[in-house]
Amino acid sequence: MVDAVVTQAAIEMSVEAVQASQIGMKALAAAIAIAGTGFASAWAELSIGSAAVGAVAENKDLFGSVLVLTIIPETIVIFGLVVGLLLIL
Amino acid sequence: MFRPEPMTHLLVVASKERMETVIRELYSHRVFHIRDYVEKEGEKVEGVTIGPPLGSASEVSSKLTRVRSMETTFGIHPDEMTPATRQRVLDLRDTIDRDLAAVGNETDTLLSRRAELEGTIRDLEQQVRELAPFAGAPIEFGHYRGYETLAVYTGRIGRDVEISVPHEKVFTPSPQGNFIALFVPVEHKAAVDAILQEARFMPIPVPRGSGLPEALLAENQGRLAELKEEIARIDQRIAALKEQQAQFLATCDEYLKSDLEQEEAPLRFATTDQAFLVEGWVPTREVERVKAGLSLATEGKALVTEVPGDPHHPVPAPVEYDNPSFARPTQLLMDTYARPRYDELDPTILVSLIFPIFFGIILGDVGYGLILLAASLGLRRFLPEGDGRLLLKVMRNGAIASIFFGLLFSEFFGFKLPWEPLLYARHLSMGGHEAEGGPMVRELLVLSIWIGILHITLGRILAAVNHGRHHGIRGVIPQLGWIASMWGLLLVIWSIVAIPVMPDLTGVPPLVAGLSLPALVGGLMLILGILAIASESALELTEFPTIISHTMSYARLVAIGLSSVAIAVVVNFVSIGMLIKPNIEDFSLVGILFILMGIVVFIAGHLLNTALGLVGGALQSLRLQYVEFFTKFYKGGGEKFNPFGMIRKFTED
């Protein structure tokens, strides 16, 4: 009788623990999605940005097109954010 | 609207005697965009050359150089000046030589005197530096020289030394280095050398001149002070001259520049022995006025012809925007990308509407909107007319949109306004205080995708118009294909999954093979669309994934906006929740410090977030125009309409 109650409690505990850990895993997954894509965006913008500054120094008229090229990789992190939000919610 | 200012291709031919008259007339109209005559290898026409400048070009040019050099001396920038009065060109022409020479002579005299004084000061300062070490020793300079039996040492030394041989010594300790003057018989020189070397002796040569060092030093310093005073007086005089002559110099600059442009204009003409020809573009509504003006000025002796356009080889006309006044500031954003070509749609007016809307959706906060509005109105006074002002106007429009969407989102510095959000809520909860609801991210994301779908469809429609104009129906089909594929794909998705804020077609009963009618129609549109795209070029299909990626890209409208809300909420939580509120409830003297700190955090945090919101909102909104919208239909690369003539500020006829 006592054993049964204890077992029951243990099962409930473990169900709660599994649920909590699932939420944690989701949050972790979202974090990885954001961090990874954020890093990727930054990496891509690093090389574009330095080339862009060089190009603008040569010819100021390029500013518009260079601005566009530099912010193109931002889409990567936006995708990461969308995935992250969809995972959490 | 949607079209640049219509232009007419004009050709003016006249005899060479009329050249100056024609130039002055065209210049006064300021509507003629000259196409420079270029002598190309292979296309050269016998007997036709580039014209020589008019007679007084080199004289005008040298005067202009003189004016510019004076402007540099005085630090005058005509572009940044607001003229008090306008001077009549006729008056100026008579007096410019005399007045300019007078100002120039005075400036030259002052500057050369100043340069001379600066040279003398440098010499004197050098002398003072040489004299300074001897100042402590009361020995006349004449006494250091002219001995046969004595060796004289003067210089810096590490410490005082004991000399074992007969000698005379003056030692002056000083924090800059001790000074020693030492007189010893020549026969003991070797011994003394050794002693001095050990004490780290560094010789200093005795300066020329005679008299006591103290007296010499005082005299030199007195002289230095006098010279510096004179330089200060000259600087004052130069400043006064700048004050007096700034307007005059700016006026001369403008007058001479306009004169030089006219004198050098023949360099852009084609000339023969007897005649000259100038080609260019005039806004169509001005053509009659220019023709009448030229005919009057030359007594009908100039031939002005309109060149008919060749539909197969159109000569690209220069582009002048033709937009309603509210869209004009946005032309700056267009020029940053590329000016539209003459033969394509000018989307300025669309961008002028959509850019602020996107900016408003991203920032969407009444508080930040008000700050930006105040900044854009307040800064206007400090910026001269030009690009800066236009940018402020763009910012003002964005700020107004931001306030509007702030009211819809019910946001004020991250707080909730006293009503429920009229659109979907973006409020985040923080610090364990579960706010009612929380952000409706799904709905917001789908809303942004909707905006993307509509924006991209608009872009494709514009592309269809552009291509249709050039290539007829064959140009339109691929563009319709893009639209059909996108909407077909949407229909298919809608009939498979139910998405909030989008039509739910999952409930439609299946028709054939488990597929419902919308799914079938969607699939058909998709296939026909792909075929239509491929009809132009199969390579175009590699772009197909952009249908999804470009649409998803609009999620940034919500994503950047939410991050801005998050920062605002964090700032509020830290400043009010953690610093201000607990200390007001539990009031103490130390608490005042925390409350002050909370206020600082609040102000600094929200200012930072405003700046981030401005940069992020503007750049992301701009990017959606440039990358997602313009790549569908816009090429750009038109030549700016640059009429021959000048907008005068300081002079008038």
Secondary structure topology:
The complex is a heterodimer of chains A (89) and B (653).
Chain A: H1 2-58, H2 63-71, H3 74-88
Helix pairs in contact in A: 1-2, 1-3
Chain B: E1 7-15, H1 19-29, E2 33-35, E3 49-50, H2 57-74, E4 87-88, H3 89-131, E5 150-157, E6 168-172, E7 178-185, H4 189-198, E8 202-203, H5 213-264, E9 270-271, E10 275-283, H6 287-297, E11 303-306, H7 331-337, H8 348-363, H9 366-378, H10 387-409, E12 411-412, E13 415-416, H11 441-471, H12 473-496, E14 510-512, E15 515-516, H13 517-536, H14 546-553, H15 556-585, H16 589-633, E16 651-652
Parallel strand pairs in B: 4-16
Antiparallel strand pairs in B: 1-10, 1-11, 2-10, 3-9, 5-7, 5-8, 6-7, 9-10, 12-13, 14-15
Helix pairs in contact in B: 1-6, 2-5, 3-5, 8-10, 8-15, 8-16, 9-10, 11-12, 11-14, 11-15, 11-16, 12-13, 15-16
Distance between the termini of chain B: 34 Å
In total, the number of domains of chain B comes to 4
Shape of chain A: rod-shaped
Q: What is the CATH C level class of the domain at 27-88 in chain A, in words?
A: Mainly Alpha
Work out the helix count of chain B.
16
Shape of chain B: flat
Figure out the total of helices of chain A: 3
What report would you give on this structure?
- The complex is a heterodimer of chains A (89) and B (653).
- Chain A has 89 residues and is mainly alpha-helical.
- Chain A has a domain at 27-88: F1FO ATP Synthase (Up-down Bundle), CATH 1.20.20.
- Chain A is built from 3 helices and no strands.
- The radius of gyration of chain A is 24 Å and the shape is rod-shaped.
- Chain A starts with a helix and ends with a helix.
- In chain A, 18% of the residues are buried.
- The mean pLDDT of chain A is 83.
- In chain B, strands 1, 2, 3, 9, 10 and 11 form a 6-stranded antiparallel sheet that branches. In chain B, strands 6-7-5-8 form a 4-stranded antiparallel sheet, with helices on one face.
- The mean pLDDT of chain B is 87.
- The radius of gyration of chain B is 40 Å and the shape is flat.
- By secondary structure, chain B is of the alpha+beta class.
- In chain B, β9 (270-271) and β10 form a beta hairpin.
- The interface between A and B is medium-sized, with 15 and 19 residues.
